[in-house]
């Protein structure tokens, strides 16, 4: 059993693998999640004909250790190395995998969603008009901390892929 390299572009910005595999007690070989190194997608820009490449220069290999959550950019090609050995599920590779969907706004504190969107909606529209074509490909999450008075106290970049 194996999973060839692929990318999960439409499913969501992040893929995850939660391992339930007793890695130290496994009766198989393989089963590592492999994720392409981002620079491989722009291979020729950094090409160096004077040096070779090894597996680890092209792909990251992540063992499926017990109770380990691996989260990665689902746009990067990834797969699973061939699993060979037992078919006994108690000693085999066992994981839960899937995708985190696109994030949605979350509100907590002194203002409810209607109160926030009443002011934030028009402001976001003006920001969109000002920057034109989005300068972000992927996911950008920003926490906007608004005080009880309605004044923005700070912005925090949470994720930028």
Explain this structure:
It comes from Chrysotila carterae (Marine alga). This is Prolyl 4-hydroxylase alpha subunit Fe(2+) 2OG dioxygenase domain-containing protein. The chain has helices at 55-58, 113-131; strands spanning 3-6, 14-19, 28-29, 33-36, 59-62, 69-73, 78-80, 84-85, 95-100, 140-146, 152-160. By secondary structure, it is α+β, with helices and mostly antiparallel strands. It folds into two domains: 3-100, no CATH class; 113-160, no CATH class. A four-stranded antiparallel sheet has the order 1-7-4-5. A three-stranded antiparallel sheet has the order 6-2-9, with no helix packed on it. The two termini are 31 Å apart. The mean pLDDT is 85.
Notable characteristics:
single chain; 161 residues; alpha+beta; 2 domains; four-stranded antiparallel beta sheet; three-stranded antiparallel beta sheet
**H/E order of the elements?**
EEEEHEEEEEHEE
Q: Mind describing the biggest β-sheet?
A: 4 strands, antiparallel
**Rg (C-alpha, Å):** 21 Å
Label the overall shape.
flat
Helix content: 10-25%
Instruction: Report the count of strand segments.
Output: 11
Distance between the termini: 31 Å
- Strand content of the residues, in percent? 25-35%
Strand order of the largest sheet: 1-7-4-5
Average predicted confidence as pLDDT? 85
From the helix content, strand content and strand pairing, which structural class follows?
A: alpha+beta
What's the helix count? 2
Counted up, domains total: 2
Low-confidence stretches: none
Organism: Chrysotila carterae (Marine alga)
Protein name: Prolyl 4-hydroxylase alpha subunit Fe(2+) 2OG dioxygenase domain-containing protein
